[in-house]
Amino acid sequence: MTQPRFRFLAQHFRMFEVSFKGIKLSMEGKNMKYEIPREMFKQRLEDRLNFVFVDLLPAERTPVKFENVVHMNYSSQFKSEFTTQYPNKNQNVVLYSLQREDEAPAKAAQDLADVGYNFVYFYNGTPDDVVLDKGLN
Questions:
Q1: I need a labelling partner for 11 at 20 to 30 A (CA). Which of 49, 76, 114, 119 fits?
Q2: Tens digit of each residue's pLDDT (9 = 90 or more) over 18-62
Q3: How large is the C-alpha radius of gyration of the chain?
Q4: The CATH homologous superfamily of the domain defined by 19-128
């Protein structure tokens, strides 16, 4: 019989229905963070399930205005602000920035993994990702 923790993890991975080939996976202890490719980001935007999307650019600077996205600046207050708004450490979180070469998504993902969030995904996009918005809003 499969232990409940492993059963949950297996179900969690099945939600993606894509290969993890080429995806950077970082596991430290039980907390994980994943860098996801553009296609997986698009898939999650189209089928949100129970994901929270966090745009790390201020709303006035982001090149695309996706619906149902939270804007939080990555700063020294990020961890405190996020944990106050989303106290559930099993919340599925997608952190992203559409600013070329922005390191904020990876740093923010590490910060959340460090404070105990279990399922943190990050995407480093570009302004060219404006095409992802076609048909979503």
A1: 114
A2: 344 445 544 444 567 889 998 888 888 888 778 999 999 888 888
A3: 15
A4: Rhodanese-like domain (3.40.250.10)
Listed in order, strand segments (DSSP E) in the chain are: 25-28, 31-35, 51-55, 70-71, 92-97, 119-124
At residue 53, φ and ψ (nearest 5 deg) are -100, 130
pLDDT grade for 119, boundaries at 50, 70 and 90: very high
Residue appearing with tokens 């600013």: 99
Q: What CA–CA distance (Å, rounded) separates 79 from 104? A: 13
